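Z., the sequence and structure:
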Amino acid sequence: MYICTSMHAVKVSIIIYISLFSLQSKAQITILAKDTATSFRGLCAVDDKTVWACGSKGWIAKSVDGKHFRFWQPKGYEKCEFRDVEAFDSNTAYVLAVTRPAIILKTTDGGNTWIETYRNEDTNIFLDAISFWDKEHGMAIGDPINGKAVLLHMYDGKNWKNWKTNFHFEPSESMFAASGTCMRAWGKKGFAFVTGGNVSRLYWQPDYADHESIIDIDTSLIQQGNAGAGAFSFCHFKYSPKYYASYCILVGGDYTKENLAEKNALIIEDGKLRKPKKLPNGYRECVEQAGNYYICCGPNGVDISKDGDVWDAYSKEGFHVVQKAKKGKKIFLAGGKGKIGVIGNGIK
């Protein structure tokens, strides 16, 4: 009996060891750049070669070979807190500065020159994210002012206008400009965003022109109740007219407790909330679909999942934002101290 129990224990140990070894062997994040005095939170990988990033102190980075990055600070914007970038090729990109003042810049010559498409000097303004349907049509979102969301609509590739909205927020409810993925445009006219703070919710707008078609879901399984907690990012990959969010993964937590692995992820399936069977290993700022996997990241590491239901540690290297190339296989990550990494052939 003793021998059988021991053999069983040995077999279990071997299985666990092999599983851990297999997982760790996949964790091949190559660091492409580091040690620049900026915290990158905006990232856009157009393809496996064309990658843009933006961060604090007005820093912007760009690669045209997927390996080497040019770093620079556009003149006059050296103090800007850039938090999001949306790019369409190596020449055309938009970057968002959150406040003091809030600015959205555009370049059409690869970043050599920039024009202001939006500027707001209001002391209460704080932009969080931008997202586009195409080069000329997009949305920008900012923290609520007097309980009403700041929503901007770009309609011609040059100008932004205030978008009339019926969204109403609870006191201390807002968005997080942690990775530029608290809002996403989807379909032809739809967009969605997540909030945190006093409460945390997911808002869906199937058609930005239809101000009455608003759905909001209380994401009660995500940390909330204080200014640092809530849903920070989501990826939406299934849509149905009946439920809007027929399958959606959200991540977040509390950024003041980066190692807290509780109530930091949520699945919405057919309009119903569900806690993942195994949560990510801490506060997470960004989640992305990456081929047959899902990947999320935060200050204390990176996690992967095949279905969003069971998350496993992939790396202890911390990042603020992750994105799979829109046209390609590579997965890029960016974070503090100018760090940019890549998973070269995707997760297999």
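The helical segments are 2-26. Residues 29-343 form a domain with the Methylamine Dehydrogenase; Chain H fold (CATH 2.130.10.10).

Let me know what you think.
H.
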